[in-house]
């Protein structure tokens, strides 16, 4: 089978193959999964940012807007650090592995 034929076959069956690949699905779910620590970080980030902005600004609306932005930044930083520490394999690497296994079956 030539490379062009495989690419065409892969384009047709990519979604089916990836939907049946356990490793790919596990990594994809890990990107969107929430645990209790996520909620604690989310709420804690808001409380910390709210207390910080209270001392810096007198406008209550500005305080809450900046606290929400800060909360999101703290939470996204936590998710970034969590992904770097917990799982070394990316979704692209899992897809490439599934692609190689699919190529071997053809």
Computed Rg: 21 Å
Strand content: under 5%
Main β sheet profile: none
Helix-strand category = mainly alpha
* E-strand count: 0
Mean pLDDT: 86
The gross shape turns out to be elongated
Number of helices: 5
Low-confidence blocks of residues: none
| Helix-strand pattern | HHHHH
Distance between the termini: 8 Å
Helix content: over 70%
SSE diagram, text form:
Elements lengths: L2 H17 L2 H11 L3 H21 L3 H27 L4 H15 L1
Provide a concise account of the structure shown.
With 106 residues, the protein is mostly helical. 86% of the residues lie in helices and 0% in strands. It has 5 helices and no strands.
List keywords for this structure.
5 helices; mainly alpha; 106 residues
Describe this structure in words.
By secondary structure, the protein is mainly α. It has helices at 3-19, 22-32, 36-56, 60-86, 91-105. The longest helix is centred in the last third of the chain and has 27 residues, at 60-86. The protein is elongated, with a radius of gyration of 21 Å.
């Amino acid at each position: 089978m030539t490379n062009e034929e495989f690419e065409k076959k892969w384009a047709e069956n990519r979604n089916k193959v990836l939907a049946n690949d356990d490793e790919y699905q596990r990594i994809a779910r890990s990107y969107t999964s929430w645990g209790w620590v996520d909620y604690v970080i989310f709420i804690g980030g808001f409380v910390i940012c709210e207390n910080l902005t209270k001392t810096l600004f007198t406008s209550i609306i500005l305080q809450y807007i900046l606290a929400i932005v800060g909360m999101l930044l703290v939470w996204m930083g936590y998710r970034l650090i969590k992904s770097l520490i917990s799982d070394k394999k990316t979704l692209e690497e899992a897809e490439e592995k599934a692609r190689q296994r699919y190529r071997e079956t053809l």
